[in-house]
Design a protein that fits this description.
This protein is α+β, with helices and mostly antiparallel strands. It is 15% helix and 17% strand.
């Protein structure tokens, strides 16, 4: 048998901070800024971070920042406080404006943009240390995934909601979601997006 000697893998270079131009393992490769610059040069660092966040939203056709159209319709439903011009979508993606009125594309008792499935217990719930479901073996958790969010976490494990269009989805009513529960449903867990916009 012949062994081929291969060079040891080289470590990739440490990320470069776009503000101080130093390389450090403490620099976020995704954001392109280091923690020191976020703390000491927040205006420059946060402008770069906002640009990165905006680009990740643009990819999915979502507003890059909360709309603040002068004279627009105010949406009071979350801390983003969007002001929407005609046809403009809110930061959550579920609100728009038409003829000076707020229009709900989803997130009402009649129509939530979400998906669900039955997750056999014990499940991988983050609250299992306090949840009695961790001792259940013949029941399930109704796992509900909301398809909108008021945040933009770059490392969201449930980021797939961004690809869901409220204009194409039929959605579910509150009653239809409640009907999904049955005698074997032990609990309901809500996952992101963020239930607040729904």
């Amino acid at each position: 048998m012949r062994f081929v000697s291969r060079p040891a893998p080289s470590n990739p270079p440490e990320p470069l901070c776009a503000v101080c131009l130093r390389r450090s393992r403490l620099t976020s490769a995704a954001l392109g800024v280091c923690g020191d610059c976020i703390r000491t040069c927040p205006e420059r660092a946060l402008a770069i971070a906002a640009s990165v966040h905006g680009e990740t939203r643009r990819t999915f056709g979502l507003p890059t920042s909360p709309p603040q159209t002068a004279g627009g319709v105010a949406c009071p439903l979350c801390a983003r406080e969007c002001r929407l011009g005609p046809g403009e979508r809110g930061y959550c993606g579920l609100r728009t404006a038409n003829r000076g009125r707020l229009v709900h594309l989803g997130g009402t008792s009649r129509r939530g943009i979400l998906h669900w499935y039955r997750d056999p217990l014990p499940t991988n719930c983050v609250a299992d240390w306090v949840c009695p479901g961790r001792r259940q073996t013949d029941r399930h958790n109704l796992a509900v995934f909301y398809a909108s969010c008021t945040l933009n976490c770059l490392f969201c494990q449930n980021w797939h909601f961004r690809g869901v269009s409220p204009l194409r989805e039929r959605g579910l009513s509150a009653a239809e979601l409640a009907d999904a529960a049955n005698a074997e449903t032990f609990c309901v867990c809500f996952f992101g997006g963020d239930p607040a916009s729904q």
